[in-house]
Amino acid sequence: xxxxxxxxxxxxxxxxxxxxxxxxxxxxxxxxxxxxxxxxxxxxxxxxxxxxxxxxxxxxxxxxxxxxxxxxxxxxxxxxxxxxxxxxxxxxxxxxxxxxxxxxxxxxxxxxxxxxxxxxxxxxxxxxxxxxxxxxxxxxxxxxxxxxxxxxxxxxxxxxxxxxxxxxxxxxxxxxxxxxxxxxxxxxxxxxxxxxxxxxxxxxxxxxxxxxxxxxxxxxxxxxxxxxxxxxxxxxxxxxxxxxxxxxxxxxxxxxxxxxxxxxxxxxxxxxxxxxxxxxxxxxxxxxxxxxxxxxxxxxxxxxxxxxxxxxxxxxxxxxxxxxxxxxx
Length: 329
What we know:
mainly beta, Porin, 14-stranded antiparallel barrel
């Protein structure tokens, strides 16, 4: 137990040193857009429920596990959509535990004859806990062995705060999608320190995708896409494509890197859909060394989506102009 907790403490130190005050991320940004851009609430033509699970570095004792759940309900009479989402991010097997409940609102309007734009707002309330009791430092081990070593002391704390995000997503009739979002617009304080540098940095994200139709063979479609996010000094760029096969299957390949073109991960994705159900899986292969850790540590991510059947209230059939969600087939 001591070895496990000590190893976890070392990993927490490394992780926090490399990405202090940064948000969690999902590799399948196409499938988890609801957590990135609140404008997504305006796009689905029918109600939907989604569940997401991500396990970062499962091969080591101190893992990073993230859960997400969301509900989107269209309000067609108002050209709007409302949503509710929940996320839980557990770092270092519970040393840091952060949960958030978010209420989303999106409004959809026609910008021109071929473009529709969704504008959205997300209001969240965050619950953050830091449990220092789970950390074992070198001083603790040396003192147990009879050596005199100055102890390292961290105090447990809990911090609750509101948080807000805004976003835009535009989609054309020829299946081009682009989006922008700004997270933590009020820069909430997530610790008890009043120092300006300890306020949560604003996060900016952008994405673009294009659906391509192929008529030959069993390969019926492809969707290349690019996603970029920046928060403080951390940048993330994901690019690649997913391919739709026989209408019910999806395969994809993606690269994650920073702006210095240092490749961080190869992401392999696969998915299946039938009737109103969609399941996608992403596997991250780590392409860089993390200080003394030379092993290639992976990540597993699974997203489940259920769509309610959509029927036009007046005609009892699908509406003439269907808005295809950027996240799903």
